[in-house]
UniProtKB/TrEMBL annotation:
Keywords: Activator. GO terms for biological process: DNA repair; regulation of DNA-templated transcription. Gene3D superfamilies: DNA Methylphosphotriester Repair Domain. Residues 17-73 form the Ada DNA repair metal-binding domain. GO terms for molecular function: DNA binding; methyltransferase activity; zinc ion binding. The keyword Magnesium does not apply. The keyword Glycoprotein does not apply. InterPro entries: Ada-like_dom_sf, Ada_DNA_repair_Zn-bd. This is Regulatory protein of adaptative response.
Length: 74
């Protein structure tokens, strides 16, 4: 998982990662993975699936970290 941050910093990090996910920004491909609580899957930020709601997303530095958190690959 991403390291623990103060709430305001953590929120801005979440917002930045969610913005990259929403834009399917290729420069972030492989730099983080997103776990989606409503589906139980994780994927790369360039995934072609519909963008999940922000509140259903958690971000991880690697696929292994997402799997350790209980998510399965898309």
């Amino acid at each position: 998982m991403m390291k623990k941050l103060t709430p305001s910093v953590a929120m801005s990090e979440h917002q930045a990662l969610y913005a990259a996910l929403s834009a399917r920004d290729r420069k972030f491909d492989g730099r983080f993975f997103v776990g989606v609580s409503s589906t139980g899957i994780y994927c790369r930020p360039v995934c072609s699936a519909r963008t999940p709601k922000s509140e259903n997303c958690s971000f991880y530095p690697s696929a292994a970290a997402a799997e350790l958190a209980g998510f399965r690959p898309a």
